[in-house]
C-alpha cells in the first residue's frame, strides 16, 4: 500500500526533529542563594599560590572554590600540580572546571567544546576522584552552544557577582574598594571572582576580603554550599599517576 507523499514527509519530519533530543541548556549561576554566605572563587590554577590561598582560608575557618584548568600556567598532571590539586581537595575546598586550555569556548564547535570540558574533568576524576558539578567558562564567555554542552555534561555554568578585576588591571586598592562597595550595599550573599595565579590577589586582597566579609557577618563557604547544592556529580577513589596517560 502506498502512502501519500505528504503523510510520509510529515512522518519523516517528526522522526528527524525528535532524533537530536536537545538537552536543556545549563543553568547559569551568578549569585549565591543561602543568606549570609559568601563564596570566594579562584580561577586559572593549579599554580604555586594554591597553598597560600588555602592557608589563609583555613586559618579563618573558611572554604574556597577553585576553578581549575588542565593546561594553562602548568600542566595539571605535573607532579607539583597533582600535589596541589590533592591538597586543595583534602582541605575541603571545592574543585570545579575552568576547562582544559583556557580557550574562548564561544569560538569553538560542539566537539571542541566537549573536548575542552572533558579533558579537565578526566584530570580531576583521576587526581581527586571528583566529577565537578560546576564549570566556569574562560573569560566568562559562553553562548547557547556552550550552555547546551554544559547541560549535556550535567553541569551548571558559574559566573560571579563581584569581580575583583585582578586580571584586568585593577590595583589591589581598587580590588579592595570593590569589596567595600559591594559590602556597603548589604547584599544577602556575595560571589567573588579572583585568580590564584596573581600574588597580590593572594597576599594582599584575600586577607582583606576575608576580614571584611567575616566582620560583616558573611560565612565563607564553597560555591556549592552557598547554593545549597552538591559540588560534584559523583566521586570515586582517586587514581595513581600513570605517566603514560596522565599528560598534557
Ligand atoms: Zn580564567
CATH H-level superfamily title? Glycoside hydrolase/deacetylase
Counted up, domains total 1
Written as H for each helix and E for each strand, in order along the chain, the element string is HEEHEHEHEEHEEHEHEHE
Percent helix range: 25-40%
Bound molecules: zinc ion
User: From the coordinates shown, what is the CATH architecture?
Assistant: Alpha-Beta Barrel
Strand content: 15-25%
Low-confidence stretches: 1-19
Mean pLDDT across the residues is 93
For the sheet with most strands, the description reads: 6 strands, parallel
- For the termini, the CA-CA separation is 59 Å
Figure out the total of helices. Answer: 8
Radius of gyration: 21 Å
What can you see in these coordinates?
This protein has 248 residues and is α/β, with parallel strands linked by helices. The protein has one domain (34-235): Glycoside hydrolase/deacetylase (TIM Barrel). 40% of the residues lie in helices and 17% in strands. The protein is built from eight helices and eleven strands. The chain has helices spanning 5-18, 50-59, 79-90, 110-128, 144-152, 172-184, 199-215, 223-227, and strands at residues 28-29, 37-43, 65-68, 94-97, 130-132, 134-135, 156-158, 162-163, 189-195, 219-221, 232-235. Strands 2, 3, 4, 8, 9 and 10 form a six-stranded parallel beta sheet that branches. Strand 2 (37-43), helix 2 and strand 3 form a beta-alpha-beta unit. Helix 2 packs parallel to helix 7 (199-215), helix 4 (110-128) crosses helix 5 (144-152) and helix 6 (172-184) runs parallel beside helix 7 (199-215). The radius of gyration is 21 Å and the shape is globular. The chain starts with a helix and ends in a 13-residue tail after the last strand. Mean pLDDT is 93; it is low at 1-19. The chain binds zinc ion.
